[in-house]
Amino acid sequence: MTMITIKNLHASVDGKQILKGINLDVKAGEIHAIMGPNGSGKSTLSSVLAGKNEYEVTEGEVLFNGKNLLDMEAEDRAREGLFLAFQYPVEIPGVSNINFLKTAINEIRAYKGLEAMPAKDFLALLKEKQKLVELDAHLANRSVNEGFSGGEKKRNEIFQMAMLEPKLAILDETDSGLDIDALKIVARGVNALRNKENAFLVITHYQRLLDYIVPDFVHILYNGRIVKSGGKELALELEAKGYDEIKKQFEKEQAL
Amino acid sequence: MIAEKTATTQILLDSLSRSSAKVPFINNEILARALAYLENKGIPGKSHEEYKYCNMEAILRREFSNCKQKSIQQAETSAFRSPLYLTIVLLNGRYAPDLSDAIPSDVVDVKAFSALGPNELAHLAYIARVEQDAFIALNTAFTGDGAYIKVKSKKTPAKPIRVLNLLGHEGDYILNSRYVLHLEEGALAELVEEQRFTGTGKVFSNLLSERLLERNTKLRAVHLQIGFPDSYTVNSTQALLAPQSEYTCCTFSSGAQLIRNNHNVVLGGKESAAHLYGLFYGKNNQLIDNHTLMDHQVPDCQSNELYKGIGDDKSTAVFNGKIYVRKDAQKTNAYQSSKNILLSDEAGINAKPQLEIYANDVKCSHGTSTGRIDETALFYLRSRGISEQSARKLLLQAFAQEVIDSIESEAIRNLVGEQFMEHLHVV
After folding, report:
1. Contact B398 A92 (CB under 8 A)
2. What is the DSSP letter of B243?
3. What does R_g of chain B's alpha carbons equal in angstroms?
4. Angstrom distance (rounded) from CA B294 to CA B353
5. R_g of chain A, CA atoms, integer Å
6. Interface residues from chain B to A (CB-CB < 8 Å)
7. From the list A77, A90, A101, which residue is nearest B380 (CB)?
8. What are the two backbone dihedrals, phi and then psi, of residue A96, each rounded to the nearest 5 degrees?
9. Is the pTM of this model over 0.90?
10. What is the largest CA-CA distance in chain A?
């Protein structure tokens, strides 16, 4: 079953065109990796899908489980099952992680016509998922991301993902700034959450993360478009050759 | 302008003279000075630097020129009782022992002004001097038979003392209420100051408290100024700190038409410390004006201030924090910070730190910031399924929490947090 269909997506920020016609289909149970050099539009794609206001969609459409995603407010996208693990998670002093997650879970449940989760169940869920991403209990009690190290912030993103159980999770350079141990923990979390009902879009710079989260498909984004798609071997090829070949190919096409 | 100002003051003085009893407990000389001050200076208008945003002359002329000054002597206080506190009630400015909780007399001594001996009377209108401000003068000239609360030497009341200033009246009403809180050497106390207005019509409450902290005492105070849309209040608080005493006060303001706080602390004894915190939320066309003064008179004292404000709709708010370090006050540490969030384009918050330093070996700093709700944080919360409204509320709660957390008593902290957040309607 197709989970998300991106058709000819164009988007700009401050009048500058960044996405220039993205086409992508992701089905339930799949993991897709999107790779590309700096400035190719990777983060713009994730921001547009999550509903960040600064980005203007100038053309194209996105269907998420058959619904028009681009018409929805950011919170409704999340309630429909979309999750973005931020490249730079935001510190929110004074809002406890627990209060934040409780509010999120209950608003998502209310959207689906469900009653608030009983406190006991919530605490049990919290414990279970904390263990999954090896997040210290004291971090869960602290303010959202406040004073967290880079690795702790990324782990907290995966923890939130585990708590919210989205249908489609977009990991925006979750590997950046992580040492190998933290990377393994994050990957273990993702692999444990992976099932036939959900899907992942893993946006990354390097092949390294894909050693641990093995993708079904790899796409190369360059200059606002997907210029090449393939299986997991494409990531290895890219690691060996770098992006130069892609760039040259692109310049050749531009010249014609 | 001058003629108008005098006219407003005269109307006010006439009206109060008719309705108020004579005040035999204020020394004649002070009484004469208070009246002379009012006749000469009048009620401050917007040309007065300290009342630039808070034109009291215009407000009193517009809203309180036709006061009936009809008070109700009975009050139903059962609704105001709380097991949390040792409540001392001032009813229309008079200490009302029958409405107050039973006082544990070995720890706390409460007397009406009219029952004071000469030693205690000497403290009245001594800590708050009439030439400091028109509202101190006004209160002194027309004060009711308020309460003198003394916490005995080395004692600690089991519960926080709550001073409840209860106003019952028919029609528009002006009242001057006053109390003194005196901590004898080594005493430790918590105070909650609260006002309730049960009458009909508008009310202008000019409340004054004098706080005397003797050597080695500790006072933790909370001012709850939440609710009552038809009320206009000026709250003058004057604290005098003896050596090694520590004073903390958190002021929560929201919901009234006007709240003006004049909070003055005199660090008059070595190694004394004062902490003032404030949290205010203005909406509609409300005005909240916080003026503070930390007067460092002697060496080795510390002061610290944190005021946070949220401005909505067309509200106006002010934080004016003055730190005065006198020539002898070497080794002073004084810090001040004011942080504000504006929720509307038409709201305004004016923050003004004022440092006057005459000593050369001191550490002083101040900072102020005013901004909007953090959009990145807002998006982060929304991206997890939280509605924009809830997300705003969470962020404002987080902003407010820092001040709420400065209340040491958990019970009061929770109560204040709930009351304040309930009041904070976010659209």
Report:
1. yes
2. T
3. 21
4. 11
5. 18
6. 374, 376-377, 379-388, 390-391, 394-395, 397-399, 401-402
7. A90
8. -75, 145
9. no
10. 65
Say whether pLDDT at A72 is over 70.
yes
Res A11 pLDDT > 70: yes
Nearest to A140 by CA among A95, A187, A103: A95
- Give the mean pLDDT per block of 10 residues along chain B (427 residues): 64 78 78 91 91 92 83 72 93 93 96 90 88 95 94 97 92 92 98 92 95 98 92 97 98 96 98 98 96 98 98 96 97 97 96 95 96 95 96 93 93 91 71
Q: Distance between the two ends of chain A, CA-based, in angstroms?
A: 39
| Dist. CA B62–CA B287, nearest whole Å | 15
Considering only CB atoms, A84 lies closest to which of B377, B383, B386, namely: B383
User: Which tokens hold the place of A126?
Assistant: 């919290």
Strands B188-197 and B258-267: unpaired
Comparing C-alpha atoms, which of A2, A73, A65 is closest to residue A32? A2
DSSP letter string over B300-361?
Answer: S-EEEEEEEEEE-TT-EEEEEEEEEE-TT-TT-EEEEEEEEEE-STT-EEEEEEEEEE--SS
Is this complex's ipTM strictly greater than 0.85?
A: yes
Residue B153 to residue A229: CA distance in whole angstroms? 82
Which chain B residues are Cβ-neighbours of A79 within 8 angstroms?
385
**Structure tokens of A150?**
């880079």
**Residues across chain A:** 256
- The pLDDT of residue B425 is 66
| Binding-site residues on chain A for chain B (CB distance < 8 A) | 50-53, 73-75, 77-79, 83-84, 86, 89-90, 92-95, 99-101, 103-105, 107-108, 111, 143-144, 160, 164
CB B406 within 8 A of CB A118: no
CB contact under 8 A, B398 and A86: no
Give the per-residue pLDDT at B427: 46
| pLDDT digits 0-9 by tens, A204-223 | 988 889 999 999 999 999 99
